[in-house]
User: Fold this.
Amino acid sequence: MLKSRKKTTNNSPNNTSDLDKYLNTDIISFEDQEDFNILIWWKSHQHKYPVLSIIARDVLTVPVSTVASEAAFSAGGRVVSKKRCNLASDVIKAGICVKDWEIADKRMYDSIRETKMLTDMESLKLSRSSWMHDSSPSPPENND
Assistant:
């Protein structure tokens, strides 16, 4: 598939682009390497092709999860409706931020409320436990 071949070298000065340098290098065959990782190759060649290695990293990496991107598009769809399709980008960003802040505030409030409820339950449990121990009947006396 890929065979080693030498491209014609360009005798231009050092102001050649990363792309020109890359295109004028040998093509290397990786048929025998089952564990070849293109991201590692670009990382090891980032000094030689600084711009191309950044582009390769951005293009070749896969997001860990698509949830974040789906959530962003979903939020954008809620803010930009048919009636609001002419909003400026700053207004759209502000709307999404306000909604995120509102959700974060609700989560914080719910967390505080839950913590207080757990504290109250612990206090109730402790008070009930001490009440149970104080009011327990004493063992019968042995009058033999």
The CA atoms of residues 79 and 91 lie 10 Å apart.
